[in-house]
Amino acid sequence: MTGYAIVLASGKFERLQAVSNIAAIAAASEIPVDVFATMDGLEAFDRDVVAGMDFEMSAVGRAMLEAEHMDMSLFSENLARAKELGPIHVYACELSMDALGKDLEAYEDVFDDVLGVSGFLTHAADKQVMFV
Amino acid sequence: MSTEIHPDVTIDARGATCPGPLMDLIGEIRHADVGTVFELKTSDSSSSHDVPEWVETAGHELLGVEEHDDYWSVFVETTK
Description:
The complex is a heterodimer. By secondary structure, chain A is α/β, with parallel strands linked by helices. Chain A contains 7 helices and 5 strands; from the N terminus they run βαβααααβαβαβ.
């Protein structure tokens, strides 16, 4: 096993934050990480969604955002910063984008490329796969 | 609380939540010479436990963790 391949299919805020935290620390620790954002997990990176904080969210997420003593970085910020520190690549799902008629310009600036499932599986071949 | 440890670099990450403080530390350690002593200030309880875990895993030396009224100081010396 030479790192983690994370399939991020959920658009739920808490899951997005958890994935970005784990991926960021792993990458900063020189553990290779590939993140494949697909379905609702990709749509969470839409610039309008992020700007409006329009995420599915439960009590934990709301508490973290509202806590005055917590200065929390958003999942997209965590991933962008991780890319400055270690071996992490973030990919957008081509199928999801095609379905909505979008291109990468619609999303936050964290993506390295657009991939289909086969492409991602090639990247994931030597990694432990995590599905979120 | 006073300390005998005299850091070369102090990183004030108070207010930031996980993984911010650790990312701050890793970012600085990358560019540090061996033997550099860091003080990481964090008000994030989880980071006060998680940063020492990372230090051990990464092979640096944890010099100590001091608890203050509203934050922790994590002291780390780079070994590589």
